[in-house]
């Protein structure tokens, strides 16, 4: 699990699958507020794509491409998006997490609420992605 | 028999709850306790999802043929509650696995009796 | 429109988020952010309490959605009172913890403070929320932080924490099951809305099942006898500052949820008159009081003794809830406040002794009264308060519990409260005798010890002095705050 598997079939199939997994994950995140899906589900699929690469291509190679620090950073960015979506409306006269007061010009209050969900879901997706990859690295990694 | 036919999901939920509880309390291996906990939580998710179903309705994705009639779709709120509960379950499993790794490193075993013996020896 | 109900958890959550980022840059930032966050949270809770006392309850609709569709946060007399207690104890213990944590677990300082902030955020969230499922989310946040915090110590801590994890997850899952039954019966998750719809459903078996599941879950979290088995190991093996943070407040917040279920969601008419739920809680609590006191006498490890003592004190709170009359509940709420101060002070003393001498066996405490005079003075005040000697605060909460038992005609509970006070005196006098009256013997070689540094000594003294102040001012607390809280308990016509 920590070294490269040196098996061309496994490596080839993983490298082929991962872009499709990530596009599907983005689809799941963006369609969460009116269909099945959402931030958590899409984030898990994104994390699964990272885990597949780590399992098949080996830890050293993948840590150079997407290091554990980058995973924590991605999670932090996700929390920041969620916190801003919650706190910015408070500065503009609304309650916490009241998307109707987000300062995006040109949208009505109902549309702001509709798109606010998308903003929060993408934040959640990033958090889940970063957290699950960090968990995987710490529980199964060689420096744990 | 009609009590069984209409409510068989609840019986399955109770059965899974019992299996999960037995796993958590009756098994001596710590990892089996954790799996019992997961089965227990899955049973609760099934209970919620079954409660959301109404006969003769369809999935809660807006269908242009049916329109905005809320009575024609199943209740999506328990599904949302279960999504949150699944996230909580994943986090709990993550913390539990980290604890198990620490315990294994310190005591070399995941069997409760062996761990208790080694704790007594080291004190 | 006041943002206070949401600001209290948000400041703690934001500081929990900032601590890992800043702490890996420089370790001292972790403590600085934690103190600032805890101080702001306490300031907001105090402001909330004053605002509630002058203007009535504050309801805050999250996201602008009105209940019962949206989630609302409610600050009324009970939740403002609990939030102030929890944030105050959190602040005092966090200030104490800096030297203690650096001494005991220096490699884990940054994660410890982040988890401590998450724990406080979860506890305060439980207190202010007015939505049943939101309470579950915050319950799990605080529980997960507690599992991780308690596992930080050496040797046996991870095993104790794993047992707490399994039992705590059972509790959370039972709570969700109960909320599910309530939701499917009433169609709402908002506490006030469910309370309005429940009286028509009192004969339903689903609602009875919901009540039973929720109370088993809260009893597990509260360490009500016989569901207390996780508590002694966990309090003994965690780092001192962690136990000092968790022991005074975590079980009390579960007791708060029990009181909230009794007063607001399931009205007293249901739990006291229809189902014998409060009587069962009262009997189990009485058993816990006696069991905890007896087991505490048998312990030589100071922290384990305090853990069994906690089980006994939680039994007092359970007796107050089980009586379900105004005087009994005032006693329970006052005991929540007093016990938070007492147990925090006691665990801070234990941490100071560990910091200076590295010892935790009572038989090795000989002569500490001369070497650590101020710390032992605080310990003496707390011990007097635990036994229930005026003017220390513990006397007054036991007094209200006695009045409530006499009011309900339950002489067995009167006997239990008096007997356990005697038993408490036994195990505390044993420690006091070691500290003040005995000289070094063969088990405790003469040691160098002195009072801990000011950052640890001042919080201990503050809590000890607080006990005396709370005792003197307890009637003000009862008349201004607690009488408002117990209004729903007055039987119509009394």
- CATH fold call of chain B: Helix Hairpins
Beta-strand residue fraction of chain B = under 5%
Largest sheet of chain A: none
Q: Which word captures the global form of chain A?
A: elongated
Category from helices, strands and their pairing of chain A: mainly alpha
Please, how many helices of chain A?
A: 5
How would you state the average pLDDT of chain B, rounded? 88
How many separate domains make up the residues of chain B?
A: 1
Q: Cα-atom Rg of chain B, whole angstroms?
A: 21 Å
Q: Quick check: average pLDDT of chain A?
A: 86
Rounded to the nearest angstrom, the distance between the terminal CA atoms of chain B is: 59 Å
How would you explain this protein's 3D organization?
The complex is a heterotrimer of chains A (144), B (123) and C (494). With 144 residues, chain A is mostly helical. Chain A is 73% helix and 0% strand. Chain A has one domain. Chain A has 5 helices and no strands. The longest helix of chain A has 32 residues, at 109-140. Chain A is elongated and about 60 Å long. Chain B has one domain (2-122): Helix Hairpins, CATH 1.10.287. Helix content of chain B is 72%, strand content 0%. The two termini of chain C are 37 Å apart. The chains are: A mainly alpha (144), B mainly alpha (123), C mainly alpha (494). The interface between B and C is medium-sized, with 32 and 25 residues.
